Amino acid sequence: MSTKVKCLIVALALSSACAAQDEHCEVAWTYDGSAPPLSQLFACARHMEGKPYSDQASKACLNEVLSSGYFLAGDLKLRHPFGGCLLEFRLKAPTVLITEMNIDVPKEELAALEVWIHKDQDALKVGTKYDS
Asked: Residue 129 and residue 98: Cα distance in Å, rounded?
């Protein structure tokens, strides 16, 4: 391989690595288990949204979220769909089963609500797991 070709390959690799650091990333979350609906847990990631990717900031944010005690484990996945940058936080939480529900609605609306809950597969029901 000629020296020119080697230099070109090295230059392309370096420019790709630099471009990855400068990309403005979108942030996504995926959960396995019952993640709590507490938006303050993810404040660090909201601050990263639309900014250049930072490995150090991403890992610090993951550690901050994991230190909350709500999650069993987690990792990061950096992807480049359609030429963009997507930083995915993948978290595992314990599964929470719904054992009791208290519904506070006027009596005249209770029957209709119970019918809706029974028909809607995504509605919370006693005996199902809470899935955020």
From this structure: 6
- Which residues make up the CATH 3.10.20.310 domain(s) of the chain? 23-92
CATH code of the domain made up of 23-92: 3.10.20.310
Task: Give Cα separations from 40 to 25, 36, 64, 97, 119 (angstroms).
Answer: 20, 10, 11, 23, 33
Separation between Cα atoms, residue 112 and residue 103, nearest integer Å? 12
Query: Looking at this protein, which amino acid is placed at residue 131?
Result: D
Interval 7-17: pLDDT, tens: 333 333 333 44
Residues 61, 88 contacting (CB under 8 angstroms): no
- List, for residues 88-112, the tens digit of each pLDDT value: 999 999 999 989 988 899 999 999 9
